[in-house]
Amino acid sequence: MSVTTTENQVSYSIAQTLREYDVHHSNQEAEDAPLETPTNLPTSRNPTNWPTSHRRVPPYRPVNRNLDLSVRGTANAVEAAFVFTMLHGVWINAAASQFWRKTGGRINDKYFRYKIGGEW
Fold first, then answer.
1. What pLDDT, on the 0 to 100 scale, is given for residue 38?
2. Helix (H, G, I), strand (E, B) or coil at 36
3. Residue whose C-alpha is closest to residue 113's, from 91, 88, 93
4. pTM of structure
5. Which segments carry the region annotation Disordered (predicted)?
6. Is 100 exposed, middle or buried (0-12, 13-18, 19+ CB in 10 A)?
7. Residues 93, 113: contact at Cβ < 8 Å?
8. Which residue has the higher pLDDT, 11 or 74?
9. Per the domain annotation, does 37 fall within a domain?
10. Is 88 among the domain residues?
11. Helix 77-87 × helix 89-102 angle, to 10°
12. Does residue 79 sit in helix, strand or coil?
């Protein structure tokens, strides 16, 4: 002889999931106890002879509004152009792309076009 049982599929799958993860529901009517914070927190103080210069925070300096640009770090025009290009590279690429699309891109649209995901 065989025995046929029927169960609600929703509750069965929830119960099975809870068994797999070893999660147990508590009584929903139980009141949540407020979290108790300890009243006497341990205090720890560093010894007074420990140095505090390790933080390396420089003293406040007001802004120098009379800077001499000749003492800046760029040694020559090539170095300055390289730094400018490195810092503004994305902007330069976008500007060149827009310029090309408005001029020569009407003739040849293969330049300044990059394949993105799904276009390979």
1. 63
2. coil
3. 93
4. 0.30
5. 23-61
6. middle
7. no
8. 74
9. no
10. yes
11. 80
12. helix
Q: Pull the structure tokens for residue 78.
A: 């090539």
pLDDT digits over 20-40, tens only?
666 566 666 655 566 666 667
Residue 75 is assigned to a structural domain of this protein = yes
Sign of the four-CA dihedral 7, 9, 10, 15: positive
Q: Which two tokens stand for residue 59?
A: 């003293």
Q: Which residue has the tokens 């690429």?
A: 93
Contact 112, 97 (CB under 8 A): yes
Residue 1 lies in a domain: no
Q: Which of 58, 60, 61, 80 is nearest to 69 (CA)?
A: 80
**Residue 77 and residue 64: Cα distance in Å, rounded?**
25
Measure CA 104 to chain center.
39
Structural domains of the chain, count: 1
Contact in structure between 112 and 100 (CB atoms under 8 Å): yes
Share of the chain above pLDDT 70, in %: 63
- Cα 78 to chain centroid distance, Å, stands at 35
